[in-house]
């Protein structure tokens, strides 16, 4: 790791210094920037700030070496692995969401040659029908709208849930202030479903699926729309069907010590 630090950090510092010089940044502006970063830290927004501006770039780099399904950002709302109970039927939803539109999330996990991967694990998480995340936003038990499915002998999975909606990333703090007031951008994400797929001998895949014709698709505040993961509109028995397939690359070889 320290070799990588020696490689990357000097370039990073050089890029920042060059930008400061290019724009003739003053002491006053330098001080304001420092105060801003202190506010990001004090408001607990470091993960949000970093994810909003840089997570998509790391994903882009990661995807260069992927032959199968492309990765997408994880976002800050995964929680830890223990929060994901194995589900065979339906992701739990709050009683107040009973009348929200039904959704079926289903698909197949394969290797990059199309061979089914039986017993693969898929963690699924998405917003509530009012755009909140369990275990994150006030008083919503961590079990809602989250779960782990295991693929069958054909590599298939299917689980019911309730439809998520577009939501704004927190915009009352310094990150939202920078996006909206200073950069003239918005803080909306299109409705989406998060996935984390794992299988023996395969490379982990974190990605997201979006809804065809959904608001903000193609104009995500996190600049992360992979338009190949926009799922065509399909309704079955009143439920929106999200057919999402994953082709997992072979696990990366561990570099020799
Ligand atoms: Fe999300």
TrEMBL record:
InterPro entries, per the entry: 1_2-CTD_multi_dom (IPR043029), Catechol_dOase_N (IPR007535), Intradiol_dOase_C (IPR000627), Intradiol_dOase_core (IPR015889), Intradiol_RC_Dioxygenase (IPR050770)
Enzyme class: oxidoreductase
GO biological process: catechol-containing compound metabolic process
Keywords: Dioxygenase, Iron, Metal-binding, Oxidoreductase
Domain Intradiol ring-cleavage dioxygenases: 105-133
Domain of life per record: Bacteria
UniProt keyword annotation of S-adenosyl-L-methionine present: no
Full protein name: Chlorocatechol 1,2-dioxygenase
Species of provenance: Tritonibacter horizontis
Gene, per the UniProt record: clcA_1
């Amino acid at each position: 790791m320290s070799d990588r630090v020696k490689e990357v950090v000097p370039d990073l510092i050089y890029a920042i210094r060059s930008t400061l010089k290019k724009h003739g940044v003053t002491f006053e502006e330098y001080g304001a920037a420092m105060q801003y970063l202190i506010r990001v830290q004090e408001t607990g927004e470091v993960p949000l700030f970093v994810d909003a501006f840089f997570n998509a770039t790391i994903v882009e780099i990661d995807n260069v070496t992927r032959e199968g399904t492309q990765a997408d950002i994880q976002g800050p709302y995964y929680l830890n692995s223990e929060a994901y109970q194995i589900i065979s039927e339906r992701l739990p939803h709050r009683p107040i969401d009973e009348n929200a539109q039904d959704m079926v999330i289903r698909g197949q996990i394969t290797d990059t040659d199309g061979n089914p991967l039986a017993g693969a694990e898929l963690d699924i998480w998405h917003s509530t029908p009012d755009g909140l995340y369990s275990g994150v936003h006030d008083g919503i038990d961590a079990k809602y709208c989250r779960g782990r499915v295991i693929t069958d002998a054909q590599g298939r999975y299917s689980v019911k849930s309730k439809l998520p909606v577009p939501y704004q990333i927190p915009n009352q703090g310094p990150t939202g202030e920078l996006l909206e007031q200073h950069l003239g951008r918005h803080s909306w994400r299109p409705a989406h479903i998060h996935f984390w797929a794992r299988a023996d001998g395969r490379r982990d895949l974190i990605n997201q699926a979006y809804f065809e014709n959904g608001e903000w698709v193609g104009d995500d505040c996190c600049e992360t729309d992979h338009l190949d993961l926009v799922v065509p509109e399909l309704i079955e028995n009143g439920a929106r069907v999200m057919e999402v397939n994953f082709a997992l690359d072979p696990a990366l070889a561990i570099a020799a010590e």
